[in-house]
Amino acid sequence: MIEASQLNDDVDESEGLEEIQAAAIGFLSLDRTTESNGLPFILQAYATWLSHFTFEPLRIINLARNDTLRSYVSGEECRQIMNMMAENVHEVTRSAAYNPVQSSSFSTTQAMLQRRLIEARTRIGTPGKPSHDSIRPLLTSPSKWISLMSKVGSLSSLLDFMQLVAPVFRRACPDPLERLVNLPALFATLDVTLQYYSTADVLLSVLTGRPMFFRYDVYFTPTVPESCFFLVDAPGARWAYGVPDRLVMTFAQMNALFEDFGPHVPTQVVDELEQEINSMKPIIAPSTEPIVVVGRMVVQECWFLAALIYLYMGLSGDNSTDIRVANVRTRFMKLLASVRPRRNPDSFLVLPMTILGVAVNDWDERDMIRRRMLGVSECTRPGRMGNDLVRILDNVWSKRHPIVWSDLRQAYWEVAGV
C-alpha cells in the first residue's frame, strides 16, 4: 500500500515546492478567511500540482500564473470553475488514496466543464462561427482537467473527455480548418493549453495504437526552424511529460504512418526515422540538484529508446526477439537500472516503460518494470490510468509467443476497453 506521504517524498529534491509557490503567489496574502484571497489559494493549488506532477515546474510557472490571472478576471463562472478545480487539486495532493468517485467536487467540476464544452461545440457549428481567439480561453480549464484526469482517472474516461474537447481544440488553433494543424508552429506559441492537448493526443496514440484525434503537419518553416526546438528554453510542452518536443513531432509523423501502413512502412522511411531519432539529444535545464539533472536526462533518453521500439515493432513489424529490438531493450534496461526507484523520475517513466514492456521477454526484467511502475502511487490504485497500464502489460505478457505490437493494441481493448 502506498502511503499518502509518498506522494510528497521527492518534491524537495526536484524543484522546491516553496520556490514554485513563491513564483506563483508572489506578494499575495494567504489568509483563506478573507473572501478576496480566493486567488492566492487557486495559485497555491496550481503551484502544488505543478511541483508534484510536471517534469519542469519552474519552467512553466510564470506562464501558468499569468494564465490563471487572466482567467480569474474573465467572469464569475470561470472563477467558480477555478475554485472547484483548486479544491480537487488540494484533495489529490493531500492523499495518494484520493478517489474521484467519492469526491463531490470532482463530479461537479466535470459536469460543469462538460456543459461548457457542449455549448462551445454548438457555437462553433453555427453560422457566423466565432474566431479562434474567442474560443481559445474555453480550453484553459479543460486542459488542466485533462492533466488531472491523467493522474486520477481511467484511460477510457480520459480519452472520452479528450474526444469531447477535440472540436473545440481544433477551432481554437490558428490554422485554417481545411489544413492540418502545424505542430512546430503550435509549439512555438506561448499557448500552453493548445500545446498540452496536442502533446497528449500524440502520446496517447503512441501508447494505445488508436488514431490521433487529429493529424498534424510536422514540417518546419523559416519562421519556426527545427533548431529552435534544441534550445534549453525551447517552446513546447517538454515541461509536462519530459518528452523532448522535437520527438513529439516525430511521434506524430510515426502515428500517421502507422495508421496508413501498419507494420509495413517503407524501409527507406524507417531508416530516415531511425537516423532522426538517433540524432536527438536530451535537453536539460539547469538545476542546483544533481539528482534532478540525472533524472531528467534518463527520462528523455528512455523516451528516445521507446521511440526506437515503436519504430521497429510498430512500423517495421519486428517482434520482441528480433535483434534490433533486443539491442534497444538492453540499453533501456541498463538506463533504468542506473537510477534508483523514486517517484521522481519514475512517475515520468511510466509511459516509456509501458512501451519497453512490449519488448521484454525475460520474467526478471518484466518484474523489474512492474515493480518500478507500482512504486508510483497512480499505478497502484484501480480505476486510474497508471493502473490500467500495469494491467495492460500483464495482459501482453500472458501471451506465449514472441510479443508483436498488435498484442499491445489487443490488450488495451481487453483491459481498458479502448
From TrEMBL:
InterPro entries: Fun_TF
Keywords for the protein's UniProt record, in alphabetical order: Nucleus
Subcellular location, principal: nucleus
Signal peptide: none
One GO cellular component, as annotated: nucleus
Compartments, record wording: Nucleus
Pfam family, one: Fungal_trans_2
Name recorded for this polypeptide: Fungal zn(2)-cys(6) binuclear cluster domain protein, putative
Species: Rhizoctonia solani AG-3 Rhs1AP
Phylogenetic lineage: Eukaryota, Fungi, Dikarya, Basidiomycota, Agaricomycotina
